[in-house]
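Q: How would the structure tokens look for this protein?
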Amino acid sequence: MLKGLFASKVKKRILLVSGVLLVLAAAGIWWFVQNRGSIPKQALQIMAENVDLQVRNVTYTDVGSSGEKWEVKADSARYMRQEKIALFDKVAIKLILADGQTFHLTGDQGRLKTDLKDMEITGNVVILSDRGDRFTTDRLSYVHGEKKIFTRSPVTMENDRMKIRGVGLTLRLDSRDLKLSSRVEAETKPVGATGGNDVKKR
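A: Here is the predicted structure in token form.
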């Protein structure tokens, strides 16, 4: 009888401890969900090195070996550690080269190879340069090692002097060399005009 009573007490104590641990675990999960927005970036970086991570309203900054600076903002992002890939939704990128040249890129989705700094942007892609040039296309790639932006899709370039359409574009950021691959059409704008054209060339 005493043995049975002792076993019953031990069982109750085990259940009580298990219940307390369960409550503490639930409280910890609730705290993380409520406070994840205030977790330091250092903690997120540590997590990103060990597990896949998905966050909202993300800002990612990086300074390259050549002195260029990236600032990536997105509605949401997912980091895949093994593949070294970051996926962004509704992405806006500010790229400042070492000589001060600035480019703004926006698109529906972005894919960044975090080890190479290569990026692909798709969906309603727009590039704005600090000279006032505007490029629009549906897909764009950036090769960091070559400082090259390119697309094989139809693209439109426009500024206050002209409007150019073509298929395929290569833009060298370091030299600002621009090449349209094929089906090029150009329209020049009258001086001081806000729209229209006076000459059309093919």
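Residues 2-35 form the longest helix (34 residues).

The chain is about 20% helix and 50% strand.

Upvote if useful.
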